[in-house]
Amino acid sequence: MPTIGVFKDELEERLEKQYTEDEFADLCFDFGIELDDVTTEAELAAKLNATGEGAAESTADSSRVIYRIDIPANRYDLLCIEGLARGLRVFLGKEKTPVSGSMRNLPTARRHAISHRCSKSLSQRTPLS
Predict the structure, then answer these.
(1) Would strands 3-7 and 34-40 be described as parallel, antiparallel, or unpaired?
(2) What are the DSSP E strand ranges found in 1-129?
């Protein structure tokens, strides 16, 4: 399973609620993911430096709490803080489930309007140097 690290304060801001470690671990379990570890930037840097995987650079705010969360391999939508927060908000009933579908089911006029908008935004992009 992939493991992601998210800052506790950023995730709680997106979820609009403060959680204790136990409450968040229970929420993760109910949602189907696992809270693997709770650490800080300083502790993580020290671990990486001890294993030779990274340099231990001191940061201005090294006391920020990091949640290390195991994500199931088939849930690519949860591999970033935005996707994780959206998934948890939907699970908690704070947000409606995103709806996606095929354009084939849309009326022809609506399909044309969407296609026109997409091609217009693509033509406004500048090529990469």
Answers:
(1) unpaired
(2) 3-7, 34-40, 65-70
Phi and psi (nearest 5°) for 36? -80, -45
Whole-Å CA distances, 28 to 1, 5, 73, 88? 15, 14, 15, 9
Asked, for residue 111, whether it belongs to a domain, the answer is no
Task: Let me know: does 4 contact 80? Beta carbons within 8 Å.
Answer: yes
pLDDT in tens, 17-62: 999 999 999 999 999 999 999 998 888 778 777 766 555 455 555 7
**In this structure, are residues 7 and 65 in contact, taking their beta carbons and an 8 Å threshold?**
yes
Residue 36 lies in a domain: yes
pLDDT at position 129: 43
Say how many domains are in the chain: 1
Say how far apart CA 74 and CA 71 lie, in whole Å: 8
pTM above 0.85, yes or no: no
